[in-house]
């Protein structure tokens, strides 16, 4: 019986010949029908949940150098702490095996690896509970699949502390806070705009994946430079683990917040308009709360149109959306709530240093 080749339309001579079968690859050095299967057979993290999670993303990979993997802890050395925050610790490490890389050996594309490679490791905030920790990791991966540019290489487990860690691209220029503190005077508008474009691009991809970051600040925006050109400096958003699916947030609220962030300032509402919109929503909730005269200890029921037919239906719908959203937020994992006390969130851009520098600059000019 002939087997249907679902990938036939993507096979192309220019990608080289599959390692496992006599057909062409579906991308450079990668065969979508053979490689994911082969890739998932030869390793185990010794946790079925972790194995399943990694394999799920291995099956989704469409390019060899974007495949994540289980990285045994003994394949990492020279581990040094480079950061610590409310969400966990960050380390730099040398990955002995190097990251995946597609090579052209003259005859075609082949699967290869770099030499040993500098990577970053980050403990995940809830790695003591494997299920919550995997949720965080999946958030990272889904944003990555949508095009978020920070490279993710896989997962490892510190065999001494038993903590799982995400292995990702090491950013050699540190975080944005540090970068601004040390380079502020040298930064031109061209540099600043490039950084802002990178950040907004990454953020828009996260939003496109229907996630919201929840904790964006200069401590979790990192910079990486390849070579000496300033144009080669790339900015990335990290700490996607606490991002959450934009589920539950009422659509009209999302639309309004997007309007507030419109690229064209002329299209953004004024502070006064924002105040009035928020006041309108607040009053609406208040009005319905009083109508219902609800008791916090009781289960809240959705308003039914027939109960209050004298009230505008669209207002009822709006109120119900707020109510549903409140319920969804109550179900969120604890990790979402921890960050309010975290040391990390308090480390916003050091405005004292910046205003001091503006002051110095203005004195000089
Ligand atoms: Zn194949």
UniProtKB/TrEMBL annotation:
Top-level lineage group: Eukaryota
Domain Protein kinase: 76-365
InterPro entries, sorted: Kinase-like_dom_sf (IPR011009), Prot_kinase_dom (IPR000719), Ser-Thr/Tyr_kinase_cat_dom (IPR001245), Ser/Thr_Kinases-Pseudokinases (IPR051681)
PROSITE patterns: PROTEIN_KINASE_DOM
Keywords, in A-Z order: ATP-binding, Nucleotide-binding
Gene3D superfamilies (UniProt xref): Transferase(Phosphotransferase) domain 1 (1.10.510.10)
GO terms, molecular function: ATP binding; protein serine/threonine kinase activity
Protein name: 4267_t:CDS:1
